From TrEMBL:
Keyword annotations from UniProtKB, A to Z: Membrane, Transmembrane, Transmembrane helix
The organism's place on the tree of life at top rank: Bacteria
GO CC annotation: membrane
Family matches, as InterPro entries: EamA_dom, EmrE-like
Keyword Nucleotide-binding on entry: no
EamA domain location: 3-130, 144-286
Protein name, entry field: EamA domain-containing protein
Record-stated family: Belongs to the EamA transporter family.
């Protein structure tokens, strides 16, 4: 079950990243973050009310608050990077955040088997290659890389924090709700500061109707990201964190394939090889 939930996480995150990257090409990244997360808050709030998850409130929710503070910084950095550089290059570098939860798992005493260690190495190498590295030193590329590395550390920290924020399913609903409320508060404050400094809320053409027309896509991005956090937390609780984290971090392959299918971005030979290695690593992790 760990492998199943972790792979579901990679699928959801991959599609959410693809959607977020597309949206930020016309709409300010902060607006995308705040609107998509506000929609997620509304949905999660209804779920918490129906399930009575408030009864699960406790000290563990501070992990969710911390994840909610780190998350917007990571998402904003990542969306800006996606808007600057090819998705197939930026997304794999973002998966380097897997180092954080894997390190936490090892520090907690987890010791994956030989096949799983091999799977971790093969899968991580495959994810990096799936982007077809193009580090040629252009200024925009350097900026995108720095933003992506910042996002990677943030994403990895969120993975580690949200896995510790609950011990039950209803508690997970509450933890995700608290995380998203914090996301909106932090993101909203950042958006306010940005506007005061001359930043934009609306798309470049100033058309508020574009945001309205984009609401279905914004809802998908916000809810897919929430669902991915949930499936990852379940995966990390049911099996080794190192295995769950690596399998969940295969999402760049999904993003690259989506970019290939929708945007017609051509996959280079190294990207195809990377996708193949990621698949081999997945098999090793699942069977080890």
């Amino acid at each position: 079950m760990t492998a199943l939930f972790a792979l579901a996480t990679s699928l959801l995150w991959g599609l959410a990243d693809f959607g977020g990257g597309l949206l930020t090409r016309r709409t300010p990244a902060l607006t995308v973050v705040v609107v998509s997360q506000t929609i997620a808050v509304a949905v999660l709030g209804a779920i918490v009310a129906v399930t009575g998850a408030w009864s699960e409130a406790g000290p563990l929710l501070w992990y969710a608050v911390a994840a909610g503070v780190v998350g917007p910084v990571a998402m904003l950095s990542f969306y800006k990077a996606l808007a600057l550089g090819p998705m197939g290059v930026v997304s794999p570098l973002g998966s380097l955040g897997v180092v954080v939860p894997v390190s936490v798992g090892l520090l907690l005493g987890e010791r994956p088997g030989v096949l799983q260690f091999a799977g971790i190495g093969v899968a991580v190498a495959g994810v990096l290659l799936a982007g077809g590295p193009e580090l040629r030193g252009a200024p925009v590329q350097r900026q995108a890389i720095l933003l992506t590395l910042l996002a990677a550390f943030g994403f990895g920290s969120v993975m580690a924090l949200i896995a510790e924020a609950s011990t039950t399913i209803t508690g997970l609903f509450l933890a995700l709700f608290v995380q998203r409320v914090t996301n909106v508060l932090v993101g909203g404050a950042a958006l306010y500061v940005s506007v005061r400094r001359g930043g934009r809320v609306l798309p470049e053409d100033g058309d508020p109707g574009l945001i309205v027309r984009s609401l279905p896509a914004l809802a998908f991005v916000g809810l897919a990201d929430v669902a991915a956090n949930g499936t990852y937390a379940i995966a990390a609780q049911q099996g080794p964190v190192a295995v769950a984290a690596v399998l969940a971090s295969l999402y760049p392959v999904v993003t690259a394939l989506a970019a290939r299918g929708v945007l017609k971005e051509r996959l280079r030979a190294v990207q195809a090889a990377g996708a193949g290695l990621a698949l081999v690593g997945t098999v090793l992790l699942a069977t080890g």
